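Objective 1b: paired records.
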Amino acid sequence: MGSPIEPATQSQSSAIKAFLDWASSQDIAQPWDTVSHGTILFPDTAQQVAEILKKASDCRVCLAVNRKDAVCLEEPIWLNLSKLDQIVDYRKADFTLKLQSGMTVYALRNLLREVDHSFPLTYPDETMLADLVAEDRPALEAGFYGYPRDYVLALEVATPDGLVTKCGADVVKNVTGYDLNKLYTGSHHTLGVITGMTLKLAAVAERKQGFWAEYPAVDLLLEDVAKLLAEPGSPLCRCEIFQRERLTDSLFQATQTPWHLYVQLSGQESHVKAYEAQVSVLCGQAITLTRLPATQALIVCKQLSRYPESALVVELALPVGVSACTAFFEEIQQELNDYPGVALQYQPAAGLATVVLPIHEPAEEGEERSDFSVQSLLEAISEFAKSHHGFLQILQYPIGWEFLASRWNFPRDPVASGMIRRIKELYDPANVLFSRRLPFEVEVS
């Protein structure tokens, strides 16, 4: 089978037609109205997902669980898990929740609000838990609360050979051989389809308080951030830096101040209240400091976390301090200025930097894309990450755009890429599960 984004041969077209005819007979296929020649599959159960994958393997047909991956296929087939959205088991005393993976973050948050538990990572409302876990997607609170993998106790996975398998256990302390949860978490839907999961929950904070500070210069902002992070025993749970261009909420659109800082406290009532006055002192170089309800600030940050589909989004994770990262980005700032609409978000507490590069398609057929400068910038960031024992990860790149840049944190490493290739060939020998982030093709015999 050739590359998923290459035109299908006649035999492949016949196989795709046979697969779609079968899917229609099972009453799970619908036309994808917004995508030419596209089809959406809506399975009702995990077993039905496994049957779809088995049929796709038999027919040698590619499909994708992520919508953005699916539109890259020559014959787009999107395996949509939205009907798998039920709660299976909730154990309040154990702080665990077992549920199907098609549930959205919005539905999960509403459910937990009723039972006095929380999932401490913040994502846009429409994010599906299957995508969140399969991509191990970083959240705004990653530096304080970790990643999705840290909250996954067990997974239910449908595999391309038609089986529904389970790994992990529904308890916090468990040792049962290889930790396959970690293998599937972050696999980007390329080894199997996550159909269910058991999550470890957190207690609801007694009090949350947000602060929004405005700064005339980034160096003043970073000095105050360093003070906030150095404070021992603080209830600080979020510390985010934003440029004015990224502000979309009407509350802040009128401001002319170039740099903004959002600080959120979370914890016991007495602890948070005692620290609120200290925030005003530590953010002493801010022009203004506004107290915000945590719910309002949450909406603002969710809007800021959404990137346009035409953008290349690169995350740089480093085990170094604020000064090293700041100095590096000052060095490449001139290069960043060459790109209209470039946004740089830096999370000092998490050791993360996110660069958003808007990429524009050629205006006319035959016009060359100016990807050389983009590639040079990515290589510079990657080299900096390697020299400081960090890593570079492409979180998103534009639909239909092929980059030479490495993916999955393994830049030009034949040993690591070879290992991933062997795992992929073992779990998905027919290469039916497609992801744009897979840095190679799997040969199918």
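Objective 1b, second protein:
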Amino acid sequence: MEKALKFFDIYPKVVPAGKTVTIYVRPLYEHVKFSEGEEYEVLYYPMERVSVHGEYQYQMPQLVKVKKGVLEIEQFFAGEQEHMFVINDLNEEMEPIRIRIYSVEEDLFNKRPYLGDLNTQSYYSDGEESPAFVAASARDRGLDFISITDHHQYKPSLEAIERFEKVEIDLLIVPGEKIHLPDNPVHILNFGGENSLNEFVEEHEDDYYLQVKAIAKNLSDIKDNQTRFLTASSIWAFERIRKLNGLGVFCHPYWEVWTGYYVSRTVIDYFYKHKIFDAIELLSGYYDHEEYANTLQIARYYEALKESEDIPIVGVSDAHKCSEDDLLGNYFTVVFADELSKDNIIKNIKDLYSVAVSSIPGEHQRAFGPFRLVRYTQYLLREVIPLHKKLCELEGAQMFAHLGNDRRARRQLSIMQGQTESLYNRLFAKPTNIK
């Protein structure tokens, strides 16, 4: 964590492009306090050199006087980019302070970044912990939304929701399941669907086969009979999930099983060409020895962008346990949405306002997806998300306490409710800061 983030309260951090905004820099501790009434030199650098002064002409230094212990820096922010300020003590009693601000266009400025995982398992399938424990672990890892997507099962996700329904939490728990259809090896997520598709197929298997075979008759360009059927089956599933008001996600395209990748090249190519899915896992929860599969998924996605820019993406952990050395929190999605609700998350993923993030311990965090969102997300991961995660960890601890029947947890969770929203309200410029 950089010195500025550790020792100073800096707000707002996200501002509208093309506006003049006042930035406040307030020392948090005595050893970094400003000298009251003294002037400090402030240098300004737009990182992508988009500036009213020209790309290689720099703004003249400002002299800013400390008022009530705070520096107030007024600046015009041109374009969508990161900006750096260097604050120099003219008496040379304090090291230079570097602070970073990001300006975005109106569409992004009106959205907030929500971190989530659409693919996790509990002990009801091949996971190790209860659905509620997985949910609490997700909050502890800094996530804003989570779906428990057990194999063949929808009810575990409902159990997680019910376990916390009598306490106030800011984690959004979304119903979900991992779908396994007869004679179709493709793994598909039903994220947020209002009912279980697995249960529907179990109860209406004859109808499933009739409808899939009807779809298959129109796929004569696929020569292999098994490939034609599983493609038709997947088309049927994605259409059904949409009718359930859910998001259908094509899982881990380059997952290696004993006999090769679990689906053929023909399947992957057809899915991309005809966009039969609502979203695709750009990053999946692979261990170190499998990580090359994510490299292939990223490369295939960027190749597909040559033909179409309309490819919604997500990142998931596919976690089967929540221990510190496992995958939960290592891969996730950042969705830029107007509010934290299931429908809004789904809408903004479909509208291409999401990126996939790799956050493996000991490695640099990396975002993948549309360039505009990636550069913004990289800023947030460094300057904003660490502050957000601290608050999530506090709430996660109380969620665990609630699961352990600690009666004090209910009150603590009630007190904490809304703290992450309040943080974003502080870090995103208010109308009173904008000219």
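The chain has two domains: 3-109, 112-395. The mean pLDDT is 96.
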